[in-house]
Amino acid sequence: MRLKVILSFLAIQIVSFALWQGVHAWNKPKPIIVTPSDVLAHESAKTPEQPFSTVRFSARSEDKKAGELSSDKKIEILSVLEKLPKEQISTLKNIILDYNPKAHRGLGGKGIIIVRAVDMESEEFYGVMVHEVGHNVDLGYLSESSKAKASEFSDNKKPIYETDPSLPFYRICWDNEKTRKKSAANQDFVSGYAMSDPFEDFAESYVYFVLHNKDFKSKTQNSEKLLAKYNYMKNTVFGGKEFSTGEYLTENLTRQPWDITVLPYSLTSFLAS
Q: Under DSSP, is residue 132 helix (H, G, I), strand (E, B) or coil?
C-alpha cells in the first residue's frame, strides 16, 4: 500500500481518469458528515483470510495519518467481497481508498473501484462498495464473447457488442444508453438514480438485490419490468441465489428512494448471511 502527496495524485488523475473506460460516479444530494466507524463491531482487528489475491489496495491522502485507517477499511471491504460470488470479484484488480472528504463517494468500472474512506458510516460505506462492485460486474465480469457486431448501446463512446450479457438487462427499460423506453415508468426502476442511465440502473438493481432482496421482490408485484430485472439478477448474475436481506414490503410498493446505498438495512444480517 502506497501513500502519495496530493500534488502527485492530481497529476496522475488527469491522465488516469482519461484512460479509464466505463467508470461511473455519483454524489449524494446532501453530504453526510458523521464520525466514521472504521473497525467492524462484529469482528476483532484481525484481518480476515483474503481469497482475493488479485485485488490490489492503495490509498490517496494528503494526511499521512490517514494511512493508519486503511487496514481497518480493508477489513470492511474484504468482509463485503466475501459475501459476493468469487467469480465476480476475479475481474476486480484495484481498490483505491480516497481520504479526501470532498471526493465522490464512489467510482467504479472495469477492474477498478475508488471509494471515499471518510465521512461515511459503515452501513453506507458497505452500500457504496456493493454498488461499485455492481459496476465491475456489469462492465468487467459480464463481458462479450465476440466483437463482431455492435449493439445500439455504448459506454463513453465505447461500443457494447451484441454478445454482451448485460444487454438483456439494459433492454428492459432502455432504447440506448441515453434514452429510456417510452413504456418505462418510474415504478420500473428501483431508485431515482437508477433512471440516470442503464449502467446506474444495473448497479442500483445489483445493490438492491444484495442488501434489500425481500424489498426488491415485494416491489416486483407492481411492475413486470422490475420483475424482469429481479429475475435477471437472480438467474444471470447470481446463478439462482437469493439473499436473505431486507423485509417483505406490504405498503409503499411504488415509492422510490433516490439512492439505494443510503436505505437503512441490517448490516449484521448481511454479514451473517
A: helix
Q: At residue 63, does pLDDT exceed 50?
A: yes
Mean pLDDT, all residues of the chain? 81
Altogether, the residues listed in the chain come to a count of 273
- Where are the extended beta strands (E) located within 119-218? 150-155, 158-161
Residue type, 61: S
Range 74-109 burial, b when 16+ CB lie within 10 A, else e? bbbbbbbbebbeeebbebbeebbbbbbeebbbbbbb
Report pLDDT for 62: 62
**Which position has the grid cell 459480464?**
142
Nearest to 192 by CA among 261, 126, 269, 244: 261
Across 186-194, average pLDDT: 96
In this model, does residue 21 exceed pLDDT 60? no
- Beta strand segments in the chain, E: 24-26, 56-60, 94-98, 106-109, 112-116, 150-155, 158-161
Burial state string for 121-159 with b = 16 or more CB within 10 A and e = fewer than 16: ebbbbbbbbbbbbbbbbbbbbbebeeeeeebebebeeee
Query: Does residue 52 carry a pLDDT above 50?
Result: yes
Q: Backbone phi, then psi, for 154, in 5-degree steps?
A: -145, 160
Instruction: Encode burial over 193-205: b for 16+ CB neighbours within 10 A, e otherwise.
Output: bbbebbbbbbbbb
Range 32-70 burial, b when 16+ CB lie within 10 A, else e: eeeebebebeeeeeeeeeeebeebebebbbeeeebeebb
- Three-class SS state of 61: coil
pLDDT in tens, 224-251: 999 999 999 999 999 999 999 999 998 8
Measure the CA–CA gap between 9 and 204, rounded to whole angstroms: 29
